[in-house]
Design a protein that fits this description.
6 helices; two-stranded antiparallel sheet; Alpha-Beta Plaits; single chain; alpha+beta; globular; about 210 residues; 6 strands
Amino acid sequence: MANSGQNRSAGVPPAVTGTSRPRADEIKISDRGHRPLPHWETHGGTYFITFRLAGSVPESILRELALRKQLPNKLPGDERPSVKEVEAYLDRCNGECHLNDPRAAELVANAIRYLDGKDYRLIAWAVMPNHVHLICKLLPGKSLSRTMQSLKSFTAKEVNKLLGRTGALWQREYYDRLIRDEAELNRAISYVRENPLKAGLADWKWVG
């Protein structure tokens, strides 16, 4: 089923078809940030990544979302809301939305495309008004954390200069998921492609 023509027509680039579950001995688990969650990295892995603007989800909203839910697999001391809840809030564009400015959105989109073939094989992406989705396959010898640091640092500096602002542009932490198989890859691609439409953004051009 995973190799059928129907699945290929869903938009999976030939270079990444056949994505398979990595072996346990190929995975490196690391922690990042001041409220760490485990991050799975593997050599040449394919990732679904989301990073958002600082101020896109105020701390008061994060606390409210956390109080309204009980995580089924909650870790001690972890009261964070789920990724889906945060994404739903982001799509309502209630917080900071600097990427609503077409110039800023285009700058970030260009930076994402620039790294295609240098740090990763770009599979799908979307620059939303207050967050960014990226699906990519890391190239040999490339590190996800270093790639993300470079991308966020460059775009933060250039967007701030463009908009005449100062201070942090991006939230310090970002979400990443190591994609295990082709079915999961197809679901992630569909999600990214449909995100602007689901958020009510008509004729949104910064998606690919």
